[in-house]
Amino acid sequence: MNEHRGFTLIELLVVIAIIAVLMAILVPTLHRAREQGQRAACLSNLKQLTAAWIMYADENDNKIVAGSTGRGGENNVPPKEDGWVHWAGYSDATTEQNQIRAIEEGALFPYGKTSKLYKCPSGLRGEMRTYSIVDSMNGWPTKPDLIVKNRMRIDRPGERIVFVDEGWVTLASWSIPYDREAWWGSAVTQPGILAGGNRNFDPPPVRHGDGTDFSFADGRSEYWKWLDRRTIEYGKMMPGSNPLQPGNPDLHRTQKAVWGKLGYVPVPENN
Fold it and tell me: Is the pTM of this model over 0.70?
């Protein structure tokens, strides 16, 4: 007579331990693969949006589309112009349908007729747009004498940022100071971009593996991984983090790419 022998408790624990080890190895690998796929899709979206941005300028005597959001006369959009997208409100306070309508009514939509181009795959539930134009490209006049309104006036277009995968977006264009060694915002006292006044800040985006995607005026897009821990901490809105970051190479690099130059003498970079 054959006897059916089951697993002992020790054997089961060994199997469970092996499975746990394999999961610990595989899960980070799968996460990285998923992130790389999202990053590649995001870079493609930005490249297509920038192609639309260039086509708009080609058809408007090289005039750059308004970089803030809204109809003419809203949110610093000139009265006789139209924002690249319209403003429907913050993504946590408006419907997905209204956000999509604001995209479709914008000045760039005729040049790339799909709302999916405006959102990174890593975007959060309810976010229909995660991309913004930077201030210097006909956006919010944080430094009026350096705002570019004609594409032919862009020096070294391959080095000048147009779009940023910002993640949480505001009604204005994406801001970074020209003449201060700091990101845009204040010291963080409450965690998270939605806490208190944090939603009005423009921290360095960190959704893509502690980095973000940018596009440039020559039409290409590129991933930048942040090197300074202060960039990441402020990007994640960690309490105690401060936008004032002397010697931060991430900050210097981004300011140069937005404004074309630095408006201050930087502290030597931290290595």
Answer: yes
